Amino acid sequence: MPVVKDIFIALSNNKFMNESAKRMGPALGANKVVAGVDIDSTIETVEKLNMKGISCTLDNLGEFVTSRQEALEAQQNIVEIMRRNYNANIDAHVSIKLTQLGLNIDREFAYQNTREILLKAHEYGNTFVNIDAEKFEDLVGITEIIDRLKGEFKNVGTVIQAYLYDSMNIMEKYSDVRLRLVKGAYKEASHIAYQTKEEIDQNYIKLIERRLLTAKAFTSIATHDHNIINHVKQFVKDNNIDRNSFEFQMLFGFRTDYAYQIASEGYNFCMYVPFGQDWFGYFMRRLAERPQNINLMLLDIFNKKNKGKIAFGATLLAGVSILIVGGISLLKKK
Q: How far, in Å, CA of 61 to CA of 39, rounded?
């Protein structure tokens, strides 16, 4: 239901709810999809996934960064997780968000922070650093920084969002850069992005096929959609595409058994593993993508062991209910 999706996107952008959730710690079922709040628990999760033949990309969660100090702290956390990964000899790299590193504070400041991460990555086994896609309003700043970095570093890549009308042109621009292909997780205007699942899926498949046939660099196909995954498997077989030129990728905590199955079939597989205190915005976007996952939230809210979290959960549910009723009322008036 589009109204429900829009509500969860709105909640992910609510600073008050994000700050309140951060003080409380993972709740509402988020502990099922966030690996942990610290590096130790995250590394334990990665080690278990590695034993299943699955590599990981780690996301140091963080939203609403408004000060240079916050951005520098985020940079230090990312460098520390890379150091710990290297010392633990685990199969993992990092995914970073430029807004967390100060993109909306000062573009040059964000560039320097990102460059420092890549320099440190070189020290720690030349680990790969993926620059995540964000809202469309940040796209120009993100691509400008990527364009500056890719000339100096070979261990940097980024993400293409299939719901953007211009996604094919953006992808073609980075034919020699490692890319992750996704459908897109934010709410964008109709003059910027496709709005229906059918349109997005169609464009996503088009991007995947084009990329696999023409790319000069590695490709991550990030989806939980078994129809698309099966399509890719058949396409790869029909076109004699080397399995080592791509991987499937899923989010930690979603369709885990299916992920294990794909990895056991001999495909490269990577799990996107978020960690940290700033879990709320990430979790709300996951609910927006798959509203049926609200079951995770309900089970956690009404778990007797979580008495201290019930008030926050009840507040959230009340807010969601009000927004749903209001949204439906508005739709009926149209």
A: 12
Name the active-site residue from 84, 178, 180, 211.
180
Using CB atoms within 10 Å of the CB of residue 143, give its burial: 0 to 12 exposed, 13 to 18 middle, 19+ buried. Answer: middle
Largest CA distance in the chain: 60
pLDDT digits (tens, 9 = 90+) for 138-174: 999 999 999 999 999 999 999 999 999 999 999 999 9
Q: Is the Cβ–Cβ distance between 165 and 193 less than 8 Å? A: yes
Decide: 129 and 163 in contact? Cβ < 8 Å. no
Annotated catalytic residue, options 59, 84, 132, 211: 132
Protein fold of 35-278: TIM Barrel (3.20.20)
Among candidate residues 233, 254, 273, 226, the one with its CA nearest the CA of residue 50: 273
Q: How far is CA 270 from the centre of its chain?
A: 12
Q: Minimal CA–CA distance to 280: which of 328, 315, 304, 321?
A: 315
E-strand stretches of 32-128: 55-60, 92-96
**Cα separation of 239 and 9, whole Å?**
38
pLDDT higher than threshold 70 for residue 9: no
Q: Is 29 left (phi over 0), alpha (psi -120 to 50) or beta?
A: left
Domain ranges of the chain: 1-28+286-334, 35-278
Distance CA 77, CA 334 (A): 48
Our answer to whether residue 132 is catalytic in this structure is yes
Task: Give yes or no: 286 in active site.
Answer: no
